[in-house]
Write a structure and sequence with these properties.
InterPro entries: Leu-rich_rpt (IPR001611), LRR_dom_sf (IPR032675), LRR_domain-containing (IPR050216). This is LRC20 protein. Pfam families: LRR_8. The longest helix is centred in the N-terminal third of the chain and has 16 residues. Helix 5 links the parallel strand 6 and strand 7. By secondary structure, this protein is α/β, with parallel strands linked by helices. Helices cover 21% and strands 12% of the residues. The protein has a 7-stranded parallel sheet with strand order 1-2-3-4-5-6-7. The chain is globular.
Length: 177
């Protein structure tokens, strides 16, 4: 446990001292984003544009995290235990890429469709059965959506009344016919 805490502290200190625009806390056995980190990063919060929290044990992400890091361009939450995102995620004005692959989502996090700048969404390896194609088609910046390894109902993918202008990746054998 002490080693894990020391590892997190080292990574955070490096971000602060070197004024990096990236914070990588992947594989740190975190179950939530530590409150102390907000205080330590207070002086550089606005400069951080990329956060990687991949391969931890997050079950949820707090609204506090989103509001503190509202300037993020990229957020990587791959390989956690997330089932939903806070509604405030839709207020992120600069987010271009979000990686939610290999989590526990059973429903598409629709608040993502409120993010006008979002270009890339990765939801591979979840348990999502329906995709809001009309809302996704209306997203002005969306270029790429990875829905591989999800049990999506095929008719839900073709239900859009709007033209699809983004690349959609699915795994045909996983689709329910």
């Amino acid at each position: 446990m002490g080693e894990a805490v020391a590892n997190v502290a080292r990574r955070i200190n490096a971000t602060v001292e070197e004024e990096k625009d990236t914070l990588d806390l992947s594989k740190c056995k975190l179950i939530n984003f530590p409150d102390a980190v907000y205080k330590v990063l207070r002086s550089v919060t606005e400069k951080i544009h990329v956060i990687t929290l991949a391969n931890n044990e997050f079950k949820s992400l707090t609204s506090k995290f989103i509001t503190n890091f509202s300037q993020l361009r990229e957020l990587n939450l791959e390989g956690n235990n997330l089932t939903k995102l806070p509604d405030v995620i839709g207020t992120m004005l600069h987010l271009t890429t979000i990686n939610l692959a290999w989590n526990k989502f059973t429903a598409f996090p629709e608040k993502l469709t409120d993010i006008k700048t979002l270009e890339r969404i990765n939801l591979e390896g979840n348990e999502i059965t329906e995709v809001p194609m009309d809302k996704l088609a209306a997203m002005p910046s969306l270029q790429f959506l990875n829905m591989k390894s999800n049990p999506i109902k095929k008719e839900k993918l073709t239900a859009s009344t709007l033209p699809i202008t983004f690349e959609l990746l699915t795994t045909p054998e996983d689709n329910v016919v």
